[in-house]
Design a protein that fits this description.
The protein is 44% helix and 16% strand. It has 333 residues and is an alpha/beta fold. Strands 2-1-3-4-5-11 form a 6-stranded parallel beta sheet, with helices on both faces.
Length: 333
């Protein structure tokens, strides 16, 4: 398959210039446009450009690497919301699940497989960002990197979510709290949502001047038992726990019960997770909702606006909402 880079090489211009010449999104000199069109004709390049009256590919790409530490059921919820919103705008969705990063984004841009790109599993210093800033292919990130300049991002305000959980526990009188977080590899990759939640949790604990600790944790019953034992051993005054690790919720409740700790009589538990997960837990969990459907829908709407040339905000952060359920109560006397 002839790539846009092949056309650029033949015409003696950059790939972005080829894209602009074909789409008409930016002014290009007549001489340059003629060279690009000649190269396209000679090489037989198949363009999906959205030029005047052009329909484009009517496909949006969703880059969601499925790798260690990623909870697939939650990722699936995001993907379904993107697909549903895309169909409402008469687009199909191309799913990119390999952890190929920069090369996957470049391939989509060069082959014209999609009109735009939704990017998930965003890291604070994501290696895909420099390319996304320079490509003519419009993109929207579900997640906010450390430096979002030149990008379009949408996400739950995870920093505020961490603070909201601590504030709720403090209102109930709790003075020693812990965060049981995502698997360790999520933090090693500096995944934005996980890091920001830790920052918010820690900032709120410091603001209230209460004792706190943060523990990344792998999923599974053995890991849940180990972290429950560690928390009770290292923080004997512990009465409040925030969990940001969906697969660990029921195993952790069971582990505490096996150790003689009842939720919420002895320990209040809050979670940051999708609402259906919290409501169906072994003990219905007080939680801050991760609004996967709303985030996926907003990402697609922002991308469609960019495709139409309409202005969009750089970053959209959804405020967290906490729902009280049976898992939290006053600090034990």
């Amino acid at each position: 398959m002839v790539k846009i880079t092949d056309v650029a090489r033949r015409a003696g211009v950059s790939p972005s210039t080829v894209s602009y010449a074909l789409s008409g999104k930016r002014p290009i000199s007549d001489e340059t446009r003629r060279r690009v069109q000649a190269a396209v004709h000679e090489l037989g390049y198949r363009t999906h450009a959205r030029g005047a009256g052009g329909a484009g590919s009517r496909v949006l790409a969703l880059a969601v690497p499925v790798r260690s530490g990623v909870h697939v059921p939650v990722v699936t919820q995001f993907a379904v919301s993107v697909v549903t919103a895309a169909r409402a705008h008469d687009h199909d969705v191309l799913l990119l699940t390999q952890g190929e990063g920069v090369e996957g984004v470049r391939r989509v841009a060069e082959t014209g497989l999609a009109d735009g790109l939704v990017v998930m599993d965003v890291q604070l210093q994501d290696p895909r960002l420099p390319l996304l800033r320079t490509l003519p292919l419009p993109s929207v990130l579900i997640g906010v990197p450390a430096e979002p300049d030149g990008l379009t991002c949408v996400d739950l305000d995870f920093g505020a979510a961490g603070e909201l959980c601590v504030d709720h526990l403090v209102r109930l009188g709790h003075r020693t709290v812990a965060l049981v977080g995502s698997p360790p590899e999520v933090y090693v990759r500096r995944t934005a949502f996980a890091r920001r939640l830790v920052q918010g949790f820690t900032a709120a604990a410091d603001r209230h001047r209460i004792a706190s600790a943060v523990h990344p944790c792998a999923p599974g019953r053995d890991a849940a038992r180990a972290i429950a034992e560690r928390l009770l051993r290292e923080q004997p005054a512990l009465t409040g726990v925030v969990v940001h690790n969906e697969p660990l919720l029921d195993p952790l409740i069971d582990a505490f019960a096996e150790l003689g700790v009842r939720v919420p009589d002895d320990l209040s538990l809050t979670a940051v997770c999708p609402a259906p997960v919290a409501a169906s837990a072994r003990v219905p969990l007080t939680s801050v909702t991760v609004p996967s459907a709303e985030l996926g829908t907003r990402a697609v709407h922002l991308l469609v606006r960019k495709l139409s040339g309409a202005p969009v905000p750089q970053a959209t952060l959804l405020p967290p909402r906490l729902t009280e359920r049976a898992s939290t109560g006053p600090r034990p006397a």
